[in-house]
Amino acid sequence: MRRHYHAVRREISSLNSIARRHWPAGAPLVRSSPMEPSIYEYPDVFRRAHLESPGEISAEVVFLQQLWKRYRKRPTRRVLDIACGDSPHGRLLAGNGNGFEIVGIDRSPTMIAAGRRKAGALANLRFYRRSIEKFTLPERPFDAAIFMSETFPVIVENAGLLSHLKSVGRALKRGGLYCIDIDRQDPMPRVSQRTIWRERTAYAAGLALDIREFHRPIAWHSPLHSIYELECTIRFPNGAVTTRDLIPVRYTLPATLELAALASGMFKMVGAYSDLSFSKPLDKCRYRWTGVLRRV
Ligand SMILES: C[S@@+](CC[C@H](N)C(=O)[O-])C[C@H]1O[C@@H](n2cnc3c(N)ncnc32)[C@H](O)[C@@H]1O
Questions:
Q1: Which of 5, 106, 112 to mutate to test the pocket of ligand 1 (most atoms within 8 A of CB)?
Q2: Domain extents for the chain?
Q3: Edge-first strand listing for the sheet containing 239-250
Q4: Could you tell me which of 157, 218, 256, 271 has the fewest CB atoms within 10 Å of its CB?
C-alpha cells in the first residue's frame, strides 16, 4: 500500500479524468481467487508495485531508533516486526551490530521463507507465521513493536483492531512502545462501480511489471476509507503471471488510533509524527504519519 495515498494527492487531477473511464457497466467484478495469486507471493517485486522509493527503509529505521531513544529510558533491543513481510527493517536492525533481537510475524509463508533466506546467517532475526488480528508467541516480552509500510489500516473490523492491540500489548513489556506507520488519508472521491485509477509499467528484478490499480465502491456507513485493487502482470521470460490483491483500508486518523489504543485497555497514545520528522506539525504532514503507543 506504500505510497498509495501519497500518489492519490499527487495524481488527483489525473484521477478525475481517468475516473470517467468506468469499468463497463454490468461487467462482473473480478475477484481475488486461487487462480490469481497475491503480489505478496513475489517478495522481490512487490515493493516496486507499491511505488516504494529506494532509501525509505533505512530512513524509517533511523527514525524508529530515534523514537525509541526519545520514549524509553532503557535501551530498546527486542523488537517485534508486525506484518513483517521479508522484514527489511528487521534485517537492518539485526545486522547493525548493536545487539538487536528481532522477531517478525506475517501470515504469508512465501514472505517468511524470503525473510529467512535473506536473513542468512543473522541468528538474531527470527520469523513466525501468524495472523496479525490475534496471535501469541513463545517469546520473552519485547521492548518495542513496529508496524511499517502503512499496512495497519487493513485491520478493518473493530473486534479485529482490539484483538490485534491486545495481542501486541501482551507481547510487550509494560512501558514498551508500539510504533505504527500510517498513510495520510485524504477524502477519496466515492465511486459507484469498480473504477480504474491508473496504469503504469515498472521494472523489478529485471522483470517488467504491468500495473493497473482500481478503486472499488464502498457503502457510506462503512469504516473503510477505500478498497484498493492492485493488478500486476509480471512478465517472466517463460510467461506472464497476473496477481490481484484487494486491499480494504480503514479510515485511520491520529484521533481514531488514540481511541482504539484506549479501548484496548493496553495502550496510551503518546505521540504522532509527520513524515519521519520531529519538528513538522501534523498540519504540514504530506505523506504519512507515525503513531506512538505506550504499553500501560
Ligand atoms: C506491504 S507488505 C509490508 C511488509 C513489511 N512490513 C515491509 O515493510 O516490507 C504487507 C505484509 O502484510 C502481511 N499481512 C497482510 N495482512 C495480514 C494479516 N491479516 N496477518 C498477517 N500478515 C498480514 C502480508 O503478507 C505482507 O507481507
A1: 106
A2: 56-185+252-295
A3: 195-204, 207-216, 224-236, 239-250
A4: 157
Is CATH 3.20.20.140 what the domain over 56-185+252-295 is classified as, yes or no? no
Count of alpha carbons within 13 angstroms of residue 168, beta-carbon side: 36
Beta carbon of 15 within 6 Å of any ligand 1 atom:
no
Q: Is 132 in the pocket of ligand 1 (CB under 6 A)?
A: yes
- The CA 285 to ligand 1 mean position distance, Å, reads 24
Per-residue pLDDT of the chain (296 residues; tens, 9 = 90+): 554 434 333 332 232 222 222 222 222 233 345 578 999 999 888 888 877 776 899 999 999 999 999 999 999 999 999 999 999 999 999 999 889 999 999 999 999 999 999 999 999 999 999 999 999 999 999 999 999 998 999 999 999 999 999 999 999 999 999 999 999 999 888 899 999 999 999 999 899 999 999 999 999 999 999 999 999 999 999 999 999 999 999 999 999 999 999 999 999 999 999 999 999 999 999 999 999 999 99
Cell numbers for 248 = 480494504
